[in-house]
Amino acid sequence: MKARLAEILQQAAAELPAVHSRPEFEAAKARFVGPNGALTACMKQMASVPKADKPALGKLINDAKTALAALLDAARERLDAAELAAALGKPVDPTLPSPDTPNGSLHPLTQTRDLITGTFKKLGFAIADGPELESEWFCFDALNMPDDHPARDMQDTLFLPPDARSSTTRRGNEAYVLRTHTSSVQIRVMLARKPPIRILSPGRAFRRDTTDATHSANFHQVEGLWVDRNVTVRDLKSILDAFVRELFGDSVRTRLRPSYFPFTEPSFELDIKAANMGRLSDRWIELGGCGLVNPRVFENVGINPGEWTGLAFGMGLERVAMLLHGIDDIRHFYANDLRFLRQFA
Ligand code: FA5
């Protein structure tokens, strides 16, 4: 019996590594451990072995069984690995550069946003964010535009359906709007932090404007706010001058044209004139609105206007990108035309 078991193991050790398919494996397995297999035949002989020899023989058979199981496992694992490799196909190195795929690039609006935020970061501004879905209080009332204020008509607002009215906003039952400007972030920041404050807030804005070459219902703005002691129009002008020079070069000229916003007093439009703005070169072009924070806004957010002063500005991101790159239609930014986008790669 001992010799027979050794022979079976020798045979298995020779045959199983040569097995290359599932049917070959199953046939070999049956030859050794199946109901009519060689090892099974040895086990059956146990019945006729004298009782005294049984323990020693039983151990021999068990050892042979374990050794056979290991040989079968090794053969099965080899087959599994070969089948997986066949299913996966030729090995690839994902770290190799692809020869045909052009690199992606940032959208021109993202590039322009990064340029603007980078410039203001150098001037000590931190980036602040706020929700695009706002309650009327943050978008209008706190900015000195109460319900009946005519200035509320200056911005055509997209309202959410009445069932979206909130019971959690400051006045309990206000409508939600898609924010018409990023000035709402000023309010959120001033409620959350104590002055001095110096923040820049880029983000989306929404208005019921008809789309044309310079307007979109969904556009982007960049809002700036600086609250400190003794902030003046001179600070406003010098900050905006520094910003504009960084973008358009030293030869750019700026002017603050008197204007009106309910949340700033005095208020201005910032105009720029430069020789390198394509079709718009050498003309005064409006870049955005600005002014000193209206003391009423400070009162609305619990900041003492006797102690603190502030400046604020807001501009259209698309407008800046169009001037920087000589783009004459805002709709190019949203058309996803690769011929347009690749020019900024
Ligand atoms: C405002 O939205 C003020 N919140 C800006 C401001 C902030 C003034 C802080 C003072 C202090 P205005 O409505 O003018 O202002 O919009 C500012 C800029 O957003 C415009 O100059 C324009 O570049 C851009 N803009 C406005 N409406 C659209 C639109 N429909 N499509 C594209 N850009 C727009």
Q: What report would you give on this structure?
A:
The chain is α+β, with helices and mostly antiparallel strands. It folds into 2 domains: 2-88; 108-344, Bira Bifunctional Protein, Domain 2 (BirA Bifunctional Protein, domain 2, 2-Layer Sandwich). 39% of the residues lie in helices and 19% in strands. It has 11 helices and 10 strands. The strands form 2 sheets. A 7-stranded mixed β-sheet has the order 1-5-6-10-9-8-7, with helices on both faces. Helix 2 (22-33) packs antiparallel against helix 4 and helix 5 (108-122) packs across helix 10. Bound molecules: adenosine-5'-[phenylalaninyl-phosphate]. Residues 155, 181, 183, 207, 209, 215-216, 219, 221, 223, 261, 264, 286, 288-291, 312-316, 318-319 line the site of adenosine-5'-[phenylalaninyl-phosphate].
**Quantity of strands, as a count:** 10
Structural class: alpha+beta
Shape: elongated
CATH class of the largest domain: Alpha Beta
Number of helices: 11
Concise structural overview:
This protein is of the alpha+beta class and 345 residues long.
Topology:
Blueprint: H1 2-15, H2 22-33, H3 38-45, H4 54-88, H5 108-122, E1 126-127, E2 133-135, H6 136-139, E3 158-159, E4 176-178, H7 183-192, E5 197-206, E6 218-228, H8 233-248, E7 253-261, E8 264-273, E9 285-293, H9 295-300, E10 309-316, H10 317-325, H11 338-341
Parallel strand pairs: 1-5
Antiparallel strand pairs: 2-4, 3-4, 5-6, 6-10, 7-8, 8-9, 9-10
Helix pairs in contact: 1-4, 2-4, 5-10
